[in-house]
Here is the input.
Amino acid sequence: MATEGGYKLEQQHGKSRVRVSRVWRRPGSDGGDLVVEWSVGVSLLSDCLPAYLSGDNSSIVATDTMKNTVYAKAKECTEVVSMESFAIILAKHFITFYPQVTTAIVNIVEKPWERVTLDGQPHVHGFKLGSEKHVTEVTLKKCGALSLIAGVQGLALLKTTQSGFEGFVRDRYTILPDTRERMLATEVAASWRYQFENISNIPAKPFCFSQRYQEVKKVLVDTFFGPPNVGVYSPSVQNTLYLMAKAVLDRYLCWTVSRFHDIAFVQLNMPNLHFLPVNLSSKDNPSIVKFADDVFLPTDEPHGTIQATLSRARSKL
Ligand SMILES: O=c1[nH]c(=O)c2[nH]c(=O)[nH]c2[nH]1
Here is the structure.
């Protein structure tokens, strides 16, 4: 931020939606080729005030250069990298290479290409598009301070029973009946922050962000549904959301009992995508369709918006 002539100026500039795909060819290997497709956003906080104040561009890193850097760094990654590691590599480059850059923010959204399985056999170079998206955002300051967030978007989940909503506030505008039997559908957006608060804290042995992503996603999904043959009752989206976030934090508490916890907080956004009971009647036929927990009108307009962030309360010890 700069103060100039009675004005306060906060600025950053960058390039959005730089689409890059990286293939790692592994001829003859059991696993086959690997491919990722990323949409990368770069934003730099830098000392380039003269550009804003007087049209002097001499300290501007061109956004076109930022775009080219994404491709150059992708080329340099001859070994497979996770998107979190790639975001760190990019951010590190921008803060170390340019003296005027004070902070780099890099975000990546991954297109969910998944290896196809044909007749039970994983294909060596064939992929199809999956559903939910892996995302990350890295904010790295020149001093090394790091914020590393990963997440999932568009994780659509539905259960046909074991959900209800009752005992809520009733006033003269309330018409929703209490229920212990309804459908529950949502599209989870979750993000979590890794507890690496400085670039130097990132373990030397590559931390497996991709594996952690799969694990967190599994904990979220398992908690939403409960055991396969019985499920688990959800008294509200709010309670289910809390249990999902808590399960993620607890999971990493158990594993890292004598060390630091590697996930600092979990943020969940779970829209309540309503499945409305259908009842149809006419003057002649009072029950064309009589609802018996079978025919629904699914709608996301409007939908409930339930969101929360769960972190560990600081110990008083
Ligand atoms: O799980 C729910 N939480 C709410 O806050 C809410 N509000 C509502 O109308 N239906 C629901 N369901």
About this structure: The chain has five helices and 14 strands. The pocket of uric acid is lined by residues 165, 176, 236-238, 272, 304 (CB under 6 Å).
